[in-house]
Amino acid sequence: MTACAIETTAEDDDRDGEHPARGVRPAACTTGLTITANGAYAARLAGVGDALYAERWTLDGPEPYAVPLPLDQPEEPGTQLLPLADGRVLVARRVDGRRNTFSLLYPTGPATGELRLGAVEAPGSEHLVLLPPSPDGICAYALCVGPETSTLWLVAGGAFGPEQVAEVPGRCSGGVWLDRTGRMLALDRRQAGGPVKAVAVDLERGGEVTPLLQITEDSDDRLLLADPDSGLLLIRSDAPSPGHDRLGWGVLGSLLPVRFPECLRLDDAAVTPFAVQPGQVLMPETCAVALRIDAAGGSWVGTWQPAARRMGQLAAPAGWLAGAGLWTPEGVLRLPYATAGAPCGLADVEAPPEPSPEPAAVAAAAASAGSAAGPGGAAGAPRVCRPVPLQQAPLTDGKPAG
């Protein structure tokens, strides 16, 4: 299961441009609920006013249920939470404007246990944000962003408390995992006032950085989501219309160009992907994508497949924790919600049927799958998604994809 848990920060000034949807700014890809990579647990800040506490949700049982994890002191509104695959919840707290402390919370009968992990110093000119849950479910990482350098910290899952694992030149944001092991991480990086370019960071090679998105020389190219099974990438870039971001898609390791479907552009609404269907090995064009649609009248849900020519739209359940959700491998979209009568709910949404893909889309799917398999590769065989720059190619091929 795949869920969006990307954190952005108020200091990420390179995201201040308007969304191409005629003046509507895109909602940050932050959610009130962060879901583990395997979809088993989630965590959020619950409570009201000054009485905030961590709350863990269990999602893989017959019915979802929530376990409150309060401590003697309430949590601050800026406290960050990250669930782990063993059911514990990582808590990151900012102390005295410089130190970031980390603890693991877990239920112990009627009380809450807390294991203190240590702290990371972040000077006033820097900020620290937890990265999305690691695919291994054990490790947790944080990104400390300074004026010229960004530092990656392993804050849970190490042997001796928080430890620095990589230093990346430039100001980084975002954070998307590219594999199922938690080795390859994509970050959106800006250097020396230049454009934003997504790069891949190899955590097993000391933070070695390689280019990931290179659509045009001057375009801002950000990675929003990636599915390691199919290689599908969801991208936001201003390459097709400089100064105005658009949603696009590509395939990791493919020679096909990035495509920017017209159906993902809505008048007076911002569209942000938050979940991709897993398990579609070598079939990126058939992956279902869930999108959050934000407009003046509220938020609702979009569903789309790269091989289709339209985006479906449907109402979200009452109390939806907007921007949170996951797909099952079978293609069921599950949306978490909380209301007064149902403080922990999970709605299975039946997406509208997609139209049959056009022959050109089917041919593109076959070409993409063949490219991903590589010479001698068998369809359905496991593969390692090796981050390589996407081909610099024309933005359209005479017949828009979407």
Specify Rg, calculated over alpha carbons: 20 Å
Class per helix and strand makeup: mainly beta
Q: Say how many strands there are.
A: 26
Shape: globular
Distance between the termini: 25 Å
Estimate the helix proportion, in percent: under 10%
Q: Order of strands in the sheet with the most strands? A: 1-2-3-4
Count of DSSP-assigned helices: 1
* pLDDT < 50 stretches: 1-31, 358-387, 391-402
Provide mean pLDDT, rounded: 83
User: Biggest β-sheet: count, sense, barrel?
Assistant: 4 strands, antiparallel
Portion of residues in beta strands equals 35-45%
Run of helices and strands: EEEEEEEEEEEEEEEEEEEEEEEEEEH
How is this structure best described in words?
- The protein has 402 residues and is mainly beta.
- It has one helix at 359-373, and strands spanning 34-35, 41-48, 51-58, 65-69, 80-83, 89-95, 99-108, 111-121, 127-130, 140-145, 149-156, 163-169, 171-177, 184-190, 196-202, 208-211, 221-226, 232-237, 246-251, 270-276, 289-295, 298-304, 312-314, 326-327, 333-337, 345-349.
- Strands 1-2-3-4 form a 4-stranded antiparallel β-sheet, with no helix packed on it. It has a 4-stranded antiparallel β-sheet with strand order 5-6-7-8, with no helix packed on it.
- It is globular and about 55 Å long.
- The model is unreliable at 1-31, 358-387 and 391-402 (pLDDT under 50).
